[in-house]
Design a protein that fits this description.
The complex is a heterodimer of chains A (279) and B (294).
Chain A (H helix, E strand, L loop, with lengths): L2 H18 L1 H28 L3 H25 L2 H8 L1 H6 L5 H35 L5 H28 L3 H17 L2 H11 L3 H10 L1 H10 L6 H45 L4
Chain B lengths: L2 E10 L2 E11 L4 E5 L6 H8 L6 E6 L2 E2 L5 H5 L1 E4 L10 H12 L3 H10 L4 H4 L9 H13 L5 E5 L7 H12 L6 E5 L3 H7 L2 E6 L2 E7 H8 E9 L2 H9 L3 E2 L5 E6 L3 H11 L4 E10 L8 E2 L1
Helix pairs in contact in B: 4-6
Classes of the chains: A mainly alpha (279), B alpha/beta (294).
Chain lengths: 279, 294
């Protein structure tokens, strides 16, 4: 049996597991509630004060997602391998003719699809509902940009979560680490870093470096790159980069850097999973 | 399949779980691997399955187990002591495992039926919703119908009811003589029925190996329990070292090889006074020094 067929068997079984678990329902509910809230509240409110509603709703939703998607991805993946190791399902499956690579590939695919597909469905649906219900124009360009950036960010944090689940055997420790990674991701953006710089007098280069290596910050800048750069919305690092590398540069950075980080983390976790003791 | 372990050593941090274990399991041999908790049994089985790396050599039919173990895994089947509590439906779990091995659903269902389990009726239920015994039967059915050349059984009947246990024994006994069986178990009925050889591990070392009969003579004792009517019978039993329990049963522990003689004596001397009689084996806590020491 080929690697892909083995991975498909693992994926089918893992999907059956995921389908019955609570986090998938939670993930779908979060997307639905967020989308509904932004369409109903955002558009109505924006109509009152005279903003172009749909773009503003999508922008607000995307920003909320930037903080939420890493959390969803980490919580869905940070305990995949170590919990399978603890409950015996890893032992059961890998005592059969299935390679470790196929197991890891199948599991990763299910987690990615379970997280990405609801998002890719919810965003256009939200836009269409806004169009039908409130007669707003759909900003397709921003919608596609938001979907691409969110997907890239999700892939990055799915891979980081899988890496944690492979490297950290203790589930409680893995959970703590995923929370710390998420906090670092959402805290190390411009505004948080400026506070750090003022408090501990860090050199500006260090603040810039910390901001740029943070995939959440890169994704945020990629979303904002559609708008005119302003210090108050972009933050100091974003404002500097927007003027330095331009809107397309920000978009590329926001898509490329999380993707690169994700691929690196995934390859690292796969190599470690194949090499290390499984139990 | 012949399995050879040579100088197997496994360390977990500061703990040496296996200390130079050398074992030869000839093709078709039926061996019990026993030892106290933490003696290294599970580690050894997991090394055999390729889930743990260890120093030393593991040979299957004379060929060293390579990193690519997919083909080898097809020839090995495993029944864990505790089946995982998967949320997926039974049908999906069975189809996944059977699919990986190229087994047909009907083959698995037939073995499951022999173990008093209707696989078709349970197909839609979550695997974790089944009882421990039902889950163990499914895994046993998957292993027994796999056509594997090496069966690794970790207390395979621990959660099964007596009838299913008996049927499981019969199914293992009916396997082709070329199939090698390694059984991790403390249950004397499993050792008596399923194996011809015993290996004892303690603190990661091979401490004892020999025939199952020698092990049972050395490590097991028989308990004969009898319920009688009338004072003469009570007196007779008391004189022969029986003690009376709260429920009226008299019991006596004795070496396994003296059990048949005692049962014969009971039959001859208490004829007509015996209401019920029962004999069973229990493990002796402190093993004697007979047998082949390593």
């Amino acid at each position: 049996m080929s690697l892909w067929r083995e991975a498909a068997v693992v994926a089918r079984l893992d999907f059956a597991e995921v389908r019955r678990s609570r986090w998938l329902i939670f993930c779908l509910l979060v997307h639905a509630v967020l989308a509904g809230t932004f369409v109903l509240v955002g558009l109505r409110e924006s109509g009152v004060v005279g903003f172009t509603g749909m773009g503003r709703a999508l922008m607000s939703w995307s920003h909320a997602l930037l903080f939420l998607l890493p959390l969803l991805a980490l919580s869905a993946t940070g305990q995949v391998v170590n919990s399978a190791r603890d409950d015996g399902s890893l032992e059961l499956l890998l005592s059969n003719p299935v390679s470790r690579a196929a197991y890891f590939l199948g599991t990763s695919l299910v987690r990615v699809l379970a997280l990405v597909l609801p998002l890719l469905v919810a965003m256009p649906v939200m836009a269409l509902v806004g169009t039908v219900a409130f007669g707003q124009q759909v900003p397709w360009g921003f919608l596609v940009r938001g979907m691409a950036v969110s997907t890239s960010l999700l892939l990055c944090f799915v891979a980081i979560g899988l890496l944690i689940s492979v490297m950290v055997r203790n589930q409680a420790k893995a959970l703590m680490l995923t929370i710390l990674v998420w906090i670092a991701g959402v805290a190390l953006i411009d505004f948080g870093l400026v506070g750090v710089m003022l408090q501990w007098e860090l050199p500006p280069q260090a603040v810039f470096a910390l901001a740029v290596i943070n995939p959440v910050q890169c994704a945020r800048l990629a979303l904002l790159s559609a708008a005119q750069p302003e210090l108050s919305t972009f933050g100091p690092v974003g404002f500097f980069l927007a003027n330095r590398i331009g809107a397309n540069g920000l978009l590329l950075l926001g898509l490329g850097w999380p993707l690169l980080l994700g691929v690196t983390a995934w390859v690292w976790s796969l190599a470690s999973f194949r090499r290390r003791d499984l139990l | 399949m012949r399995v050879e372990l040579k100088g197997l050593q496994k360390r977990f941090g500061k703990v040496l779980a296996l200390r130079g274990v050398t074992i030869d399991l000839p093709e078709g041999s039926r061996t019990a691997l026993i030892g106290p908790n933490g003696s290294g049994k599970s580690t050894l089985v997991r090394v055999l399955m390729g889930m743990l790396c260890a120093d030393g050599m593991v040979l299957f039919d004379g060929v060293e187990a390579s990193e690519e173990r997919r083909e080898l895994a097809r020839r090995i089947a495993y029944v864990p002591q505790i089946a995982p509590r998967l949320a997926a439906p039974v049908g999906d779990v069975v189809r996944a495992v059977a699919g990986l091995r190229g087994q047909a659903w009907t083959e698995v269902a037939a073995i499951a039926a022999a173990l008093s389990l209707d696989l078709d009726a349970l197909a839609r239920r979550p695997f974790r919703a089944l009882s421990g015994g039902q889950r163990q039967k499914i895994l046993a059915a998957l292993a027994l119908s796999s056509g594997a050349e090496l069966l690794l059984l970790d207390e395979p009947t621990a959660s099964m009811d007596p009838r299913s246990r008996g049927e499981f024994f019969r199914l293992v006994e009916s396997l082709p003589s070329s199939v090698t069986v390694l059984l991790c178990s403390h249950r004397l009925d499993e050792i008596r029925r399923l194996v011809d050889r015993v290996i004892v591990l303690a603190e990661g070392e091979l401490r004892w190996q020999g025939s199952a009969a020698a092990y049972l003579d050395d490590h097991a004792e028989a308990v004969v329990e009898v319920q009688v009517v009338g004072e003469p019978a009570d007196t007779w039993l008391l004189a022969r070292g029986f003690t009376r329990g709260a429920t009226g049963w008299w019991s006596k522990a004795l070496p396994v090889n003296e059990r048949a003689r005692l049962l014969g004596e009971i039959g001859r001397n208490l004829n007509g006074q015996v209401r019920d009689v029962m004999a069973r084996d229990v493990e002796r806590l402190q093993p004697d020094s007979q047998g082949e020491r390593e």
